[in-house]
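Bumping my old thread because nobody answered last time. Still need a sequence for this structure:
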């Protein structure tokens, strides 16, 4: 079942790319495995999947210890500064950098461990009160400060769009994030690359790909709904 689910998601991404005149190889599918047991992740791993996303540091660290070392782990959930030390050096990318102080902590820990950490800047494009991230307006003043920090590399932007019944409602937010990345790129700031746009989840990843996503974070469409009754 999981293998079939992945094939369906990959087919949808390919078709969305074709509509947008993009190459499907430009989009990375991240399997969001939060709350899912290790045996389920192993089953997905056996299909060839190597990109996994986790929301919680403790769960991420436990799974890193128990799963094959060639997995690329993505931290996609809200990250507290006091948890940074547990994941720097263990993850491929941190998607959810939502403050200068967090970026400073990641930089400090990366220097300590002598690694370079790739990060994305989280932008709350829709202005939802319950979401973290910079506003599109206040991200610019902080960017240059973050870009000057040692041992981090700013690869692009990330957003979590509202949960909506009709994914078309989120198209404007994805379009806005893409435009923001273009505007930032035009400033030619050292150490800011803007080659990565992490946007789109199970309910709206197709629209996100049509609007320029290079990474989509898909959980339910691969693993099934989470069981909250356990």
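Sorry it took so long. Here it is:
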């Amino acid at each position: 079942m999981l293998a079939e689910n992945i094939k369906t998601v990959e087919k949808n991404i390919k078709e969305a790319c074709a509509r947008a005149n993009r190459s499907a190889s430009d989009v990375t599918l991240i399997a969001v495995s939060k709350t899912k047991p290790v045996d389920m992740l192993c089953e997905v791993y056996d299909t060839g999947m190597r990109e996994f996303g986790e929301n919680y540091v403790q769960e991420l660290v436990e799974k890193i210890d128990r799963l094959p070392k060639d997995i690329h782990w993505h931290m996609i959930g809200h990250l507290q500064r006091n948890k940074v030390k547990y994941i720097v050096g263990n993850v491929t990318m941190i998607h959810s950098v939502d403050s200068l102080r967090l970026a400073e902590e990641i930089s400090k820990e990366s220097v300590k461990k002598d690694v370079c950490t790739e990060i994305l800047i989280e932008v709350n494009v829709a202005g939802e009160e319950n979401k973290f991230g910079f506003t599109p307006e206040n991200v610019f003043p902080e960017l240059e400060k973050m870009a000057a920090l040692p041992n981090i590399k700013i690869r692009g932007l990330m957003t979590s769009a509202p949960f909506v019944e009709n994914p078309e409602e989120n198209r404007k937010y994805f379009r806005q994030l893409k435009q923001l990345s273009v505007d930032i790129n035009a400033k030619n700031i050292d150490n800011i690359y803007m080659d990565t746009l992490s946007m789109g989840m199970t309910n709206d990843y197709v629209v996100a790909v049509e609007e320029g996503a290079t990474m989509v974070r898909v959980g339910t469409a691969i693993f099934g709904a989470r069981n909250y009754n356990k």
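The chain has a mean pLDDT of 96. Let me know if any region looks off to you.
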